[in-house]
């Protein structure tokens, strides 16, 4: 009890310091809680319903929110918020949708106007360190990434894409209007639809990445406004920008796609997922060592949510503990989660607040499972004329080889020499079984390279390509050209064999008939890994004003004044040339000989 | 004639817009972003909604990797006031802040795919506040992102275009930069009032550095302007003459200037909230207006009611 009280006080005091209106806010939240209690009845929760409640007419839209907090082996905390709105409506055929309840109206109007089937947009600050942190739930590259599948009824996909990016730049307060044909590609294999639908013609797919795009509160504000209750209630109350951006990794994304309504899949519903993934750094958040950590010390007012913790009993313990434990296979790894269902009043107990305390047991962590697929990329070479892009793909599976799809989008000002493309694994040449290459056109199109490469087990595969840097026109340089130019991350997509399937221990207890084939829960799962973006210096003219002014002035003065001075002061005189010494001697000798003079 | 006389005494505006621009890039120009955000904060607090504010920030200071306190922009050392806040919408950011985009926003000549939040959808009953801050090394221009300039002639012509296209009712122009008074020398359109932080030949100075953040946090003129505006509330009756007194030479080191010769009304009658706030005038009428009657007829009734006041 003492520990809990001290943790509570520890929570409360910094909270009060940061929020001078804390008392008022607390009271307001309490009032809010009472009001929403009434509303909860007409929403059908996704979890099981108690049998004595009479069956309600299922609402056409549902909302569900979840927060997963996972302590990572490096001591950092990974928090993943997911907000899902499912809506059974017909955006495309039939009457125009005019009544929006949980689904955000601004997005609904955009989707129906541009006939969008799938939309995935993410804004990320920081780079996900796979080797230290493991796999993220939803990967995203640094900067802004947008990929869209249009419906097959769209006739002018390029026009719709351009307008869509402009509209989204207004909605999310980001410079998405810089997406144009110079950074848009149509990947043929890497970005298949994540929802339902049988249209896979890449003409309706557009993919663009802006690696320079920054994420800040100005992007979080409109993102939060798309949630049904904004940031006033629910888990979104925890999203304070000062905490979220003081982190090693911050990614907010929006995924829209059609999914099956139920397991029979007779009809489809539209699913909108808003996700926020944050990794809080151990050192910057003020606690230098892994001791007691009080997480998110706020009083929580939740509508319909559950908080999920993966439980690894030997590493740390949670308080207060919960009886609800669930097991799930996530990313090929079987994990146990302790679930706090915040719709259930029993979780809160007597107080209206829930304070989580995470205490690390051991000083060092155990062995983290090495991620099976991992990628790196860097630029080699020197000087400002040529260079080489190296992409390394690591396969850490001890005995299984698997194929990966590598997608590279390189801007036109790095002129790739595809004849220098080499793929080597374990020192030997590794020929890709499928290559789709689209060369660039200056100022029109970037390079697109997609390859299917088989990665041998426990190996590093290296893909190298040489390039030449182009000299841009002086108006095409950004205001800070000496910072460099960014090249977007490479995307490595693969179906990775599952670790769970690898585990042969669990087959010993099972009956013989089920353990013959190695397919247990999931034999392989889909994974996407993003490499680092590259920062490349292009040959830049010297834009500095004093240098240019001095050069220009000196040239003008030298040429102008010098010529004028010469014209004014130079006079021409005819002069008798005196013969040289050799000639004079020769003439003397000739006179003596009586021969004509020179 | 009656309408004109009426306008002489009251503002006659029905909506408020604000265009707030910070034109400098790089971390050491933190103070310009803080200037713009403090005016943004005041304008939002006094009632102008985000949909009526066009905020242009040329660089990101809040989430800059050099910022020791991410997602914050402070106006005062000791980090008392976070002007960035939790609810901010930036319409033009980074490389989008160019002279061309600024002039296009003012004149309304934007490509058709531009979203609404990036447009200045003002009409002839709009009062617009335009705030510019940045660096300018010489008189007559303002530098945008250290790579291009806008001259005072271009600005004056843009305002004239706005006047001929009836895009404003009254316009207040504030500029915080070195030799700021040179920027409003060339204005010639009616109903313009201008304020600048320094006269021609003078430099505008910054206020105070913060040792933790490592840069100067704000410029003097805007710092005292923010202090002045923090005391204004939506029902305040402070007028423009009070605004002219903000930051005298003893505090600002430079001499702030203003120009009111193009403005029709007397500055003493102009409320601060006419430009900084969004105070809507509600006219209560006792007569019933028939909306089903033909359009011309109903307009006649409305005009009669207005003129009879």
Automatic annotation (TrEMBL), chain A:
Protein name, entry field: Phosphatidylinositol glycan anchor biosynthesis, class T
Source organism of this protein record: Oncorhynchus tshawytscha (Chinook salmon)
GO CC annotations, alphabetized: GPI-anchor transamidase complex
GO biological process terms on file: attachment of GPI anchor to protein
Family matches, as InterPro entries: PIG-T
PANTHER family: GPI TRANSAMIDASE COMPONENT PIG-T, GPI TRANSAMIDASE COMPONENT PIG-T-RELATED
Automatic annotation (TrEMBL), chain B:
Complex and partners: Heteropentamer. Part of the GPI-anchor transamidase complex, consisting of PIGK, PIGT, PIGS, PIGU and GAA1. Interacts with GPAA1. Interacts with PIGT; this interaction, via a disulfide link, stabilizes the expression of GAA1 and PIGK and links them to PIGS.
PANTHER family per the UniProt record, alphabetical: GPI-ANCHOR TRANSAMIDASE
GO cellular component: GPI-anchor transamidase complex
GO biological process: attachment of GPI anchor to protein; GPI anchor biosynthetic process; proteolysis
UniProt GO molecular function: GPI-anchor transamidase activity
UniProt keyword annotations, A-Z: GPI-anchor biosynthesis, Signal
Domain of life: Eukaryota
Family according to the record: Belongs to the peptidase C13 family.
Name of the protein described by the UniProt record: GPI-anchor transamidase
InterPro entries linked to this entry: GPI_transamidase (IPR028361), Peptidase_C13 (IPR001096)
Gene name of the encoded protein: PIGK
Protein species of origin: Oncorhynchus tshawytscha
Pathway involvement of the protein, from the record: Glycolipid biosynthesis; glycosylphosphatidylinositol-anchor biosynthesis
């Amino acid at each position: 009890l003492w520990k809990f009280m001290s943790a509570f006080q520890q929570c409360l005091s910094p909270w009060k310091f940061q929020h001078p209106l804390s008392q008022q806010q607390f009271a307001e939240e309490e009032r809010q809680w009472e009001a929403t209690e009434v509303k909860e009845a007409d929403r059908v929760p996704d979890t099981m319903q108690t049998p004595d409640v009479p069956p309600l007419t299922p609402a056409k839209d549902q909302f569900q929110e979840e927060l997963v907090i996972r302590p990572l082996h490096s001591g950092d905390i990974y928090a993943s918020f997911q907000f899902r709105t499912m809506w059974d409506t017909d955006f495309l055929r039939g009457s125009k949708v005019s009544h929006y309840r949980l689904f955000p109206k601004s997005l609904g109007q955009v989707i129906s106007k541009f006939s969008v089937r799938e939309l995935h947009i993410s804004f990320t600050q920081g780079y996900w360190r796979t080797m230290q942190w493991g796999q993220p739930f939803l990967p995203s590259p640094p900067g802004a990434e947008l990929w869209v599948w249009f419906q097959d009824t769209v006739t002018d996909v390029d026009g719709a894409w351009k307008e869509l990016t402009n509209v989204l730049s207004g909605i999310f307060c980001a410079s998405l209007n810089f997406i144009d044909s110079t950074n848009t590609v149509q990947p043929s294999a890497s970005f298949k639809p994540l929802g339902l639908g049988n249209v896979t013609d890449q003409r309706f797919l557009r993919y663009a990445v802006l690696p320079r795009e920054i994420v800040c509160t100005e992007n979080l504000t409109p993102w939060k406004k798309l949630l049904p209750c904004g940031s006033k209630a629910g888990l979104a109350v925890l999203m304070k920008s000062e905490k979220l951006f003081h982190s090693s990794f911050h990614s907010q994304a929006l995924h829209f796609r059609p999914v099956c309504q139920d397991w029979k899949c007779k009809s489809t519903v539209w699913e909108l997922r808003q996700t926020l993934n944050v990794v809080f750094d151990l050192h910057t958040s003020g606690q230098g060592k892994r001791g007691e950590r009080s997480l998110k010390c706020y009083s929580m007012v939740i509508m319909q949510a559950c908080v999920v913790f993966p439980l690894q009993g030997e590493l740390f313990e949670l308080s207060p503990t919960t009886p609800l434990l669930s097991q799930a296979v996530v990313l090929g790894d079987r994990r146990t989660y302790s679930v706090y269902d915040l719709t259930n009043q029993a979780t809160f107990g007597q107080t209206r607040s829930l304070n989580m305390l995470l205490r690390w047991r051991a000083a060092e962590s155990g062995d983290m499972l090495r991620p099976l697929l991992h990628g790196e990329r860097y630029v080699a070479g020197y000087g400002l004329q040529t260079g080489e892009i190296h992409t390394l793909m690591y396969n850490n599976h001890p005995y299984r080889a698997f194929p990966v799809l590598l997608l590279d989008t390189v801007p036109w000002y790095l002129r790739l020499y595809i004849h220098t493309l080499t793929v080597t694994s374990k020192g030997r040449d590794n020929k890709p079984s499928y290559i789709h290459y689209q060369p660039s056109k200056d100022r029109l199109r970037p390079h697109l390279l997609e390859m299917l490469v088989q990665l041998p087990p426990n190996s590093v595969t290296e893909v190298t390509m040489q390039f030449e840097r182009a000299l841009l026109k002086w108006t095409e340089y950004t205001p800070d050209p000496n910072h460099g130019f960014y090249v977007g991350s490479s995307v490595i997509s693969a179906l990775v064999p599952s670790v769970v399937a690898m585990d042969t221990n669990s087959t010993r207890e099972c009956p013989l008939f089920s353990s013959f084939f190695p397919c247990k829960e999931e034999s392989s799962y889909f994974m996407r890994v993003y490499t680092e973006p590259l920062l490349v210096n292009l040959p830049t003219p010297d834009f500095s004003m004093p240098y240019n002014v001095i050069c220009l002035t000196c040239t003008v003065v030298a040429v102008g004044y010098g010529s004028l001075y010469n014209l004014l002061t130079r006079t021409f005189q005819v002069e008798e040339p005196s013969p040289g010494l050799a000639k004079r001697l020769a003439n003397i000798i000739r006179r003596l000989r009586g021969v004509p003079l020179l | 004639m009656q309408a004109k006389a009426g306008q002489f005494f009251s503002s006659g505006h029905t909506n408020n817009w604000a265009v707030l621009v910070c034109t400098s890039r790089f971390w050491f120009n933190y103070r310009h972003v803080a200037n713009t955000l403090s005016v943004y904060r005041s304008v939002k607090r006094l009632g102008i909604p985000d949909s009526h504010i066009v905020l242009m920030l040329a660089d990101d200071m809040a989430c800059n990797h050099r910022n020791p306190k991410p997602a914050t922009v402070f106006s005062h050392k000791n980090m008392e006031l976070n002007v960035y806040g939790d609810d901010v919408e930036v319409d033009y950011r980074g490389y989008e802040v160019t002279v061309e985009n600024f002039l296009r926003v003012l004149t309304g000549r934007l490509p058709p795919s531009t979203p609404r939040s990036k447009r200045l959808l003002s009409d002839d009953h709009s009062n617009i506040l335009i705030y510019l801050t940045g660096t300018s090394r010489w008189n007559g221009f303002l530098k945008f992102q250290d790579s291009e300039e806008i001259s005072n002639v271009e600005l004056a012509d843009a305002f004239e275009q706005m006047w001929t296209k009836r895009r404003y009712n009254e316009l207040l122009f504030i500029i915080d930069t070195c030799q700021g008074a040179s920027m409003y020398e060339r204005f010639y359109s009616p109903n313009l009032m201008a304020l600048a932080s320094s006269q021609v030949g003078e430099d505008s100075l910054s206020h105070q550095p913060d040792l933790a953040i490592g840069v100067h946090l704000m410029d003097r003129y805007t710092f005292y302007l923010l202090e002045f505006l923090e005391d204004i509330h939506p029902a305040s009756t402070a007028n423009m003459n009070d605004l002219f007194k903000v930051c005298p030479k003893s505090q600002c080191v430079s001499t702030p200037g203003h120009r009111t010769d193009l403005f029709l009304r007397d500055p003493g009658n102009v409320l601060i909230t006419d430009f900084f706030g969004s105070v809507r005038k509600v006219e209560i009428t006792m007569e019933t207006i028939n909306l089903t009657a033909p359009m011309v007829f109903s307009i006649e009734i409305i005009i009669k009611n207005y003129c009879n006041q």
